[in-house]
Write a structure and sequence with these properties.
Strand order of the largest sheet: 2-3-4-8-7-6-5
Strand content: 25-35%
Keywords: Membrane, Transmembrane, Transmembrane helix
Number of strands: 9
Helix content: 40-55%
Order of helices and strands: HEEEEEEEEHEH
Number of helices: 3
Distance between the termini: 68 Å
Shape: elongated
Amino acid sequence: MFACSATVYRSRNHRSRNEIGVVVIISGIVISFCVSVALSAHDKFLKVEEEAQRQSDMLRREIQKCDDGFAIIDGDEWQPRTIPVEAYRGCVSIEYQTIQGRIVEVSSYRKGEDIHQGCDRYICEDRDGFLLVWRDLNELKEARVHLDQRIVVHVSGVDFDEEDARQAVGLLRMATPKDRESLIKSLAESYAEQRFS
């Protein structure tokens, strides 16, 4: 009888050690996985921060082409989407999008730009403080306005109509240094997140 109870005790003791071993192995795997995920997230965070800084520098250089003088749309409905970096556009161009998906581009040109430039090729109409430029009688190319006597602003978009032009031009104002930094930060973070998502 003593021999049987010793065998049962050893069997239970052996099973208990195996269970502890399995728990230790599973715990090690879980901890390794958690550490790996945390390191991966930290690595992504560092890459996003580095990319955001790179984008901020690039956007700041682009904006300085206008000596920091450029127009923005000041309306809650309009959110900056991108700053296209293309030489044929104004010294600073900003694309805005509404919640409904309407997209307009606001391009600021330095003083010296003639607001009537190209009116020999297009149909131009002066309206309440701004100029409408039509490709033909049915297609509006853009609206133009002098802003702060330093900048000529062109506002255009896909399926752009006179009402869009009137609304966008009515919301234009010169950007302040705070606007500039907010725009740079917002777009740089957005670009960086998109790149690493």
